[in-house]
Amino acid sequence: MKSIRSIQMTNLAKTYCVLFVFFIGYQALKAENKPFSQLQDTAINVFSGVITGEKGDKMPYAVLSVEKTNISTVTNADGEFLLKVPKSEMDKNVLVSFLGYENLRIPLAAMMPRGNKYSMRPLQFTLPPLEVISKDPESIIRKMMENKDKNYSNKDMMMTAFYREIIKKRNTNVSLSEAITEVYKRAYNSSLHDMASLYKSRKSTDYNKLDTLVFKLMGGPFNNIYLDVMRYPDYIFSENIFENYEFKFLKTDQINDRIVYVIDFKQLRHIVEPLFYGQLYIDAETYALARAEFDMDLTNNDEATRIFVRKKPLNAKVSTYKAHYLIEYRLMDDLWYYSYSRIDLGLKIDWRKRLLNTYYNSIIEMAATDWSDDMDRRTFRSKDRINPTVVIQNEASGFSDPEFWGEYNIIEPDKSIENAINKIKKQLDK
């Protein structure tokens, strides 16, 4: 049997070696404008607005989905949304969901093209007492794994998604990449890996603000694809899960009008390898994982940093100060599908003979915006597929085109990203 260290480090290297600091870049990719889209040449309506709480507080990463369709998006960090819907679906409702809040159902016919503002209310009712409180939380985890084949798709699917990666130096955006990607999602019981191709992308990096570094994120959309922990269970739910972690039942909560069990987990004290701690949100009826939010344990910081940093300058010491992960699933037609994932990673660089340290933060997110079981393997011919080690190449010109994304749903830029885009536009206009 493999040791805990070899299993975890292998999985992490395969899935979450997402941040690399080096002087010589790896393979880069520029997306081509390949003609594929279920929405292409379809008349659409576009809606924008903001989702808030009762007191006007922003609701970041709330999910908006058009009921009885596969169309969805998420709000940005400021609670703002942009939703594109075919006119043929205008008789539907938009479902807005956020953990711990009552769902909103909004008729599309009642929405305005822009300026929509909707307020969500915290859950007011008391969740019913459940006998699960007296159960061993490990039994809930076991049932979650046993029910995987029933809860997730057992056939290949095509997922259209919007991908964004940001690198910040302290609070300043220094690199911004965005892409529309199609993911060939294998069946959840398949041993084959998912495949991905880029439809179009844009990227701009201000290398003048990156000190002497060439700082690149490697892996592109595969960082988020591999965060699908039910598709790639060895990441956390390996055969050694109960030897690695301790579990605690925290409470019941609600997601999308469904009761979930909230299970806390953290690595056992005697384990020195950097594993994880956080919460699992498990649907009480189906025992499907509906959401997971967790962090890497950075106590053994040198070992954790070696996972993320492939190369570094000789005159710098690099440490990791944050490694936070989020994955959410959406229930459609009695099966659970990938909905949204986000990786938030922070590095500190201590330069020799310099007074001040440099802090870099990378945010990598991907939202599924459409699903289809109309599979076309030709879409993923070898020349169109991207490699899991890809680095998205600079192509800033797309930031000057307001219609760059066409009919595809995207995550609306938050204020800091809008400022970065405006600066890029000014540079392009010079």
Explained architecture:
The chain is mostly beta strands. The chain has a domain at 4-33 and 138-391. It has seven helices and 21 strands. The protein has helices at residues 4-15, 137-146, 148-151, 222-225, 241-244, 301-308, 415-429, and strands at residues 19-22, 28-29, 44-53, 63-66, 72-74, 80-86, 93-97, 104-107, 116-120, 157-169, 172-185, 195-205, 214-217, 245-255, 258-267, 276-283, 289-296, 316-332, 335-351, 358-372, 391-392. Strands 12-11-10-20-19-18-17-16-15-14 form a ten-stranded antiparallel sheet, sandwiched between helices. It has a four-stranded antiparallel sheet with strand order 5-4-7-8, with no helix packed on it. β19 (335-351) and β20 (358-372) form a beta hairpin.
Task: Summarize the helices and strands and which ones pair or pack.
Layout: H1 4-15, E1 19-22, E2 28-29, E3 44-53, E4 63-66, E5 72-74, E6 80-86, E7 93-97, E8 104-107, E9 116-120, H2 137-146, H3 148-151, E10 157-169, E11 172-185, E12 195-205, E13 214-217, H4 222-225, H5 241-244, E14 245-255, E15 258-267, E16 276-283, E17 289-296, H6 301-308, E18 316-332, E19 335-351, E20 358-372, E21 391-392, H7 415-429
Parallel strand pairs: 2-21, 3-9
Antiparallel strand pairs: 1-13, 3-6, 4-5, 4-7, 7-8, 10-11, 10-20, 11-12, 14-15, 15-16, 16-17, 17-18, 18-19, 19-20
